[in-house]
Design a protein that fits this description.
Layout: H1 16-20, E1 23-27, E2 31-34, E3 39-41, E4 58-66, E5 71-78, E6 86-91, H2 104-117, E7 120-125, H3 136-149, H4 155-160, E8 162-171, H5 173-186, H6 189-192, E9 197-203, H7 214-220, H8 230-240, E10 263-270, H9 274-281, E11 288-297, H10 300-303, H11 307-324
Helix pairs in contact: 2-11, 3-5
Family: Belongs to the 'GDXG' lipolytic enzyme family.
Protein name: Alpha/beta hydrolase fold-3 domain-containing protein
Domain Alpha/beta hydrolase fold-3: 88-301
């Protein structure tokens, strides 16, 4: 119930096997990696430009962060706000290997997030693995914040948002990135001033391990409940981690003893990642709030088309708004 089924078939050039050698790893329908390192990605989701309906009340534009690495960001700016809004720095999902800030599903979701939360959103288009294995995405996230730091005296940015109220936000692999970027920035908090990371919002954050959890086995045995399968999860880690690393690598885990002022973790009940996300919250209730969305699977907020998924997405947007603006506790 509330599941999303992907029926896209990956278009592969049959000559590539001859040119690049055999396929050495893949996530079916999404990505193939050949023996010589050539990477082939499916056009699963269309990429769209930075235009939005006027009635949404959100302006949108793209900006380069680092032309050398081709890292850029899409900005969502609420038009009618009485004061400078907080800034949400967002990292998209896709197993660290696929996805884009210009994917239509993210464009639509983040426009809604900006409008509903009354926040400016900066969606970072970071470098992808396996061409750029971790920690490249973490480095791009840190550099995005340092790029903002250079704009504290820019009169335009001073009007757009409150840079003393930054939240790092992401879903799936992007949730992992937001968490690890926050950990890296925590050690340099004084150097960032007047920028301040107020908290993180982790939407079904992607963590892993060699030992299987109950939710991994349960959801895997009911494959229709979530778009993320156990086999795909394992493959994303193989492609994203440094050479020779396994799923016990520190990049697969929440950072221990990380001090974050406030964190919201959004968990999907029918997600293979559920147990790892719940474990992350255990014992940290003073700073971490978690919400479990019943009957929906991984990435329901961007890929789910059912009424249940739409209702859960509406609830999650309300929870994020309350969390950011210190409204009633969740």
């Amino acid at each position: 119930m509330g599941a999303t089924t992907l029926t896209h078939v990956m278009t592969i050039n049959p000559n590539n096997t001859n040119i690049h050698g055999p396929v050495v790893d893949e996530v079916e329908g999404l990505i193939r990696v050949y023996k010589d390192g050539h990477v082939e990605r499916s056009q699963l989701v269309p990429c769209v430009g930075p235009s939005l309906p006027l009635e949404l009340g959100v302006a949108c534009s793209d900006v380069y962060i680092d032309k050398l690495t081709n890292v850029w960001a899409r900005l969502y700016i609420p038009i009618d706000t009485n004061s400078k809004p907080p800034l949400l720095v967002y990292f998209h999902g896709g197993g660290f290997c696929v996805g884009s800030a210009s994917w239509s599903c993210y464009h639509e979701f983040l426009a809604r997030l900006s409008a509903s939360s009354r926040c400016m959103v900066m969606s970072v288009n970071y470098r992808l693995a396996p061409e750029n294995p971790l920690p490249a995405a973490y480095e791009d996230g840190v550099n995005a914040i340092l790029w903002l730091r250079k704009r504290i005296h820019d009169s335009l940015w001073a009007k757009l948002c409150d840079l003393s109220r930054i939240f790092l936000v992401g879903d799936s692999a992007g949730g992992n990135i937001a968490h690890h970027v926050a950990a890296r920035l925590a050690a340099a908090a004084d150097d960032l001033k007047p920028l301040r990371i107020e908290g993180t919002v982790l939407i079904q954050p992607f963590f892993g391990g060699e030992a299987r959890t109950e939710s991994e086995l349960r959801v895997e045995n009911n494959a229709k409940s979530s778009v993320l399968t156990l086999a795909a999860s394992d493959a994303w880690w193989r492609l994203a981690l440094p050479r020779g690393a396994n799923r016990e690598h520190r990049y697969c885990k929440p950072v221990k003893k990380m001090v974050v002022t406030r964190t919201l973790v959004c968990v999907a009940e029918m997600d293979v990642l559920m147990d790892r996300e719940m474990e992350m919250c255990d014992g940290n209730e003073e700073v971490i709030k978690r919400v479990v969305y019943k009957g929906v699977g991984h990435a329901f907020q961007i890929l789910g088309k059912s009424q249940l998924a739409q209702t859960a997405t509406d609830e999650m947007l309300c929870h994020i708004d309350s969390f950011i603006h210190h409204c009633d506790p969740l």
